[in-house]
Protein backbone atom coordinates (compact mmCIF):
# COMPACT_ATOMS: atom_id res chain seq x y z
CA UNK A 1 0.00 0.00 0.00
CA UNK A 2 1.21 3.50 -0.78
CA UNK A 3 0.44 6.57 1.29
CA UNK A 4 0.97 10.25 0.51
CA UNK A 5 2.35 12.34 3.36
CA UNK A 6 2.17 16.14 3.62
CA UNK A 7 3.77 18.14 6.44
CA UNK A 8 3.03 21.86 6.61
CA UNK A 9 2.67 24.85 8.90
CA UNK A 10 -0.56 26.09 10.48
CA UNK A 11 -2.13 29.50 10.96
CA UNK A 12 -4.97 29.87 13.39
CA UNK A 13 -4.99 26.10 13.88
CA UNK A 14 -5.64 25.35 10.18
CA UNK A 15 -3.18 24.09 7.54
CA UNK A 16 -1.54 27.13 5.92
CA UNK A 17 0.71 25.62 3.19
CA UNK A 18 3.13 28.57 3.14
CA UNK A 19 5.68 25.73 3.05
CA UNK A 20 5.06 22.03 2.60
CA UNK A 21 7.15 18.87 2.61
CA UNK A 22 5.75 15.88 0.72
CA UNK A 23 6.68 12.20 0.51
CA UNK A 24 5.23 8.87 -0.54
CA UNK A 25 5.72 5.87 1.74
CA UNK A 26 5.06 2.21 1.12
CA UNK A 27 3.95 -0.31 3.75
CA UNK A 28 2.72 -3.92 3.56
CA UNK A 29 -0.99 -4.42 2.93
CA UNK A 30 -3.19 -4.87 6.04
CA UNK A 31 -0.73 -3.10 8.32
CA UNK A 32 -1.62 -1.19 11.49
CA UNK A 33 -2.21 2.55 11.76
CA UNK A 34 0.70 2.86 14.20
CA UNK A 35 3.18 1.41 11.68
CA UNK A 36 1.91 3.74 8.95
CA UNK A 37 2.26 6.74 11.26
CA UNK A 38 5.76 5.69 12.39
CA UNK A 39 6.91 5.46 8.78
CA UNK A 40 5.23 8.75 7.86
CA UNK A 41 6.82 10.53 10.82
CA UNK A 42 10.22 9.08 9.89
CA UNK A 43 9.82 10.31 6.30
CA UNK A 44 9.17 13.85 7.61
CA UNK A 45 11.98 13.79 10.18
CA UNK A 46 9.56 13.62 13.10
CA UNK A 47 10.78 10.40 14.73
CA UNK A 48 10.30 10.68 18.49
CA UNK A 49 8.03 13.75 18.23
CA UNK A 50 4.91 13.34 20.32
CA UNK A 51 1.50 14.57 19.28
CA UNK A 52 -2.11 13.67 18.65
CA UNK A 53 -3.45 11.56 15.78
CA UNK A 54 -6.96 12.20 14.45
CA UNK A 55 -8.65 9.59 12.24
CA UNK A 56 -10.96 10.86 9.47
CA UNK A 57 -11.45 7.44 7.77
CA UNK A 58 -10.06 8.79 4.45
CA UNK A 59 -6.93 10.24 6.02
CA UNK A 60 -5.07 10.71 9.30
CA UNK A 61 -3.96 14.02 10.76
CA UNK A 62 -0.98 14.24 13.13
CA UNK A 63 -0.64 17.40 15.22
CA UNK A 64 2.70 17.60 17.08
CA UNK A 65 2.54 19.07 20.58
CA UNK A 66 3.93 22.62 21.00
CA UNK A 67 4.37 23.13 17.26
CA UNK A 68 2.39 25.14 14.70
CA UNK A 69 2.55 22.30 12.18
CA UNK A 70 0.36 19.46 10.94
CA UNK A 71 0.97 16.24 8.97
CA UNK A 72 -1.62 14.54 6.75
CA UNK A 73 -1.40 10.88 5.67
CA UNK A 74 -3.71 9.72 2.86
CA UNK A 75 -4.00 6.49 0.87
CA UNK A 76 -2.73 6.78 -2.68
CA UNK A 77 -5.32 5.41 -5.10
Largest β sheet strand count, sense and barrel closure: 5 strands, antiparallel
The radius of gyration over CA amounts to 12 Å
The gross shape turns out to be: globular
Please state how the strands of the largest beta sheet are arranged side by side: 2-1-5-4-3
Brief descriptors of the model:
77 residues, 1 helix
Give an account of the 3D structure.
The protein is mainly β. It has one domain. Helix content is 14%, strand content 53%. It contains 1 helix and 5 strands, in the order ββαβββ. The chain has a 5-stranded antiparallel sheet with strand order 2-1-5-4-3. A hairpin with a 4-residue loop joins strand 4 and strand 5. The longest helix is centred in the middle third of the chain and has 11 residues. The mean pLDDT is 95.
Show the helix and strand layout.
Blueprint: E1 2-11, E2 14-26, H1 33-43, E3 51-55, E4 59-64, E5 69-75
Antiparallel strand pairs: 1-2, 1-5, 3-4, 4-5
Provide a concise account of the structure shown:
The protein has one helix at 33-43, and strands at 2-11, 14-26, 51-55, 59-64, 69-75. By secondary structure, it is mainly beta. It has one domain (2-75).
